[in-house]
Design a protein that fits this description.
- By secondary structure, this protein is an alpha/beta fold.
- It contains six helices and seven strands, in the order αβαβαββαβααββ.
- The protein has a seven-stranded mixed beta sheet with strand order 3-2-1-4-5-7-6, with helices on both faces.
- The structure holds S-adenosylmethionine.
- The site of S-adenosylmethionine has 19 residues, from α2.
Length: 213
């Protein structure tokens, strides 16, 4: 079945790339990877942000539901996977950091997505989120404009996201907010101490064949 971003994939970097360039640099600085870290760009699209991390971290993985977006992202040093962000093929506690850049509001099952991020992160792992902010007037306008382009979007407010992440044991460590959006970094100190667990994460039955293309 065709995914919403399949059609825009060939134009995405040209339209969005220049607009997002400074923002992606700020995100990379905020994430501040070390050379041995494994990072997942979830909903990573054409790899605009994943490419920023080349040379800054040990391994960069990109997962996206749109085969056409992933096609644009293909790069020898980026491990790509076509799949859904709420049910990824990776083992528990596999990543040092997960990135959700401009993707959260495209996913309906947001609690499942946050559970999956919780499952994927190592203790001490980081979550970087770049989003429109429903708490801000221009964020609400941006959210509304997106509904004209996509059939459905599900924007959230910064405070509401903080609450949902705190419930899962994440601690906010840095944030940059403006009139319509935010970039924020959370840390998952030790998932076993928070009393939150993910029992319903479904892994593909053929997990033994786990590999990335
Ligand atoms: C606006 S683009 C952002 C792409 C990239 N993260 C960036 O910042 O340039 C949103 C991306 O989320 C992907 N996406 C939407 N729902 C998804 C899901 N359930 N699982 C994985 N990817 C998803 C889309 O295919 C699209 O590539």
């Amino acid at each position: 079945m065709e995914k919403p971003f399949d059609k825009v994939a060939p134009y995405y970097d040209r339209w969005i790339g220049r607009f997002m360039s400074g923002r992606m640099d700020r995100m990379a600085d905020l994430l501040s990877c070390s050379p041995d870290e494994i990072v997942l760009d979830l909903g990573g699209g054409t790899g605009l942000f994943a490419r920023r991390l080349l040379g800054r971290c040990g391994e960069i993985h990109l997962l996206d539901e749109s085969p056409q977006m992933v096609e644009q992202a293909r790069h020898g040093e980026i491990k790509t996977w076509v799949g859904c962000g709420t049910e990824t093929p990776y083992p528990d506690r596999f990543f040092d950091a997960v990135v959700l850049s401009d993707v959260f509001h495209h996913i309906r099952d947001q609690d499942l997505l946050l559970d999956e991020v919780f499952r994927l992160l190592k203790p001490g792992g980081r979550l970087l989120v770049n989003e429109v902010d429903l708490d801000r007037f221009w964020g609400r306008v941006a959210g509304w404009l997106e509904t004209l382009l996509f059939t459905q979007v599900f924007p959230t407010g910064f405070q509401h996201l903080c609450t949902r992440l705190e419930k899962r044991g994440f601690r906010l460590v840095d944030e940059v907010r403006d009139s319509w959006s935010f970039i924020a970094l959370w840390k998952l100190d030790d998932p076993s101490l928070g009393g939150f667990s993910v029992s319903h994460a479904k892994l593909p039955e053929d997990i033994d064949r786990f590999q990335v293309q």
